[in-house]
């Protein structure tokens, strides 16, 4: 009986990520992943039932490595202290993640494949959709506590994400742009938060109540 291990699973995800980025989703094969990691196809299929499931797991693992801690901080945040500070910190972490070479390469790959496969859908469901759901839950709590103007929390989340990536999107179209410095990343996140704060009156209601 074969025993599954977390270390083996992580190794598969790491190799699979490299193969997906190198070949794209359609041309990437489980056989190539097996060749690089060693073993047999049954080794991988014991962890992931399909290439689609493996790709979603790769996408989810990337998010967990880079930004899951920031999501956890929002989930455990004490609403009595307002939201501007913790949401600003999250925006900065999100901007840093969006600027990472790994995510830029993944977005390029997904967009190239999305027109002729279900790769875009798989990526969206494993990554952005989960993030939108979690942040919308946080914003709903913020609205309930009077820390921002009441509105559709999902729409507010989508708009927050759009504001954070507004100055980042151009980087996806150039091959070798120099990386942004931490100061530059903080600056664009701060500018996004200024606009979002004005639009949704962050902490204004609670301040007035106090």
What would your notes on this structure say?
The chain is mainly α and 210 residues long. It has 2 domains: 1-58, Arc Repressor Mutant, subunit A, CATH 1.10.10; 67-209, Tetracycline Repressor, domain 2 (Orthogonal Bundle). Helix content is 70%, strand content 0%. The protein contains 12 helices and no strands. It has helices at residues 6-23, 30-37, 41-45, 51-66, 68-75, 84-99, 101-114, 119-126, 128-144, 153-165, 182-200, 204-209. Helix 1 (6-23) crosses helix 2, helix 5 (68-75) packs antiparallel against helix 6 and helix 6 (84-99) packs across helix 11 (182-200). The longest helix is centred in the C-terminal third of the chain and has 19 residues, at 182-200. The protein is elongated. The model is unreliable at 206-210 (pLDDT under 50).
Summary tags:
210 residues; mainly alpha; Arc Repressor Mutant, subunit A; Tetracycline Repressor, domain 2; 2 domains; disordered C terminus
What does the secondary structure layout of this molecule look like, with pairings?
Blueprint: H1 6-23, H2 30-37, H3 41-45, H4 51-66, H5 68-75, H6 84-99, H7 101-114, H8 119-126, H9 128-144, H10 153-165, H11 182-200, H12 204-209
Q: Would you list the SSEs in sequence order as H and E?
A: HHHHHHHHHHHH
Per CATH, which architecture of the largest domain? Orthogonal Bundle
Strand coverage percent? under 5%
- Measure the end-to-end span: 63 Å
Helix content: over 70%
CATH class of the largest domain: Mainly Alpha
- Structurally, how many domains make up the residues? 2
Helix segment tally: 12
CATH fold group of the largest domain: Tetracycline Repressor, domain 2
Mean pLDDT, all residues = 88
Low-confidence stretches: 206-210
State the CATH superfamily name of the largest domain.
Tetracycline Repressor, domain 2
Number of strands: 0
Backbone structural class: mainly alpha
- Characterize the largest beta sheet: strand count, sense, and whether it forms a barrel: none
Q: In angstroms, what is the radius of gyration? A: 20 Å
> Which descriptor suits the 3D outline?
elongated
């Amino acid at each position: 009986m074969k025993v599954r291990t977390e270390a083996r699973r992580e190794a598969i995800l790491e190799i699979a990520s490299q193969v997906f980025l190198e070949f794209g989703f359609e041309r990437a094969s489980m056989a190539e992943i097996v060749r690089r990691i060693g073993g047999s196809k049954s080794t991988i299929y014991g962890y992931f039932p399909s290439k689609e499931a493996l790709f979603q797991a790769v996408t989810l693992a990337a998010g967990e490595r880079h930004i899951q801690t920031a999501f956890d901080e929002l989930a455990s945040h004490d609403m009595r202290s307002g939201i501007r500070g913790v949401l600003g910190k999250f925006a900065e972490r999100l901007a840093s993640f969006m600027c990472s070479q790994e995510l830029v390469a993944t977005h390029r790959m997904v967009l190239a494949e999305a027109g002729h496969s279900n790769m875009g859908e798989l990526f969206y469901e494993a990554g952005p959709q989960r993030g939108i759901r979690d942040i919308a839950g946080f914003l709903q709590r913020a609205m309930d506590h009077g820390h921002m103007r009441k509105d559709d929390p999902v729409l507010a989340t989508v708009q927050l994400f759009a504001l954070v990536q507004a100055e980042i999107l151009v980087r996806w179209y150039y091959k070798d742009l120099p990386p942004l410095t931490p100061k530059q990343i903080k600056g664009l996140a701060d500018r996004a938060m200024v606009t979002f704060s004005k639009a949704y009156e962050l902490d204004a209601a609670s301040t007035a109540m106090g």
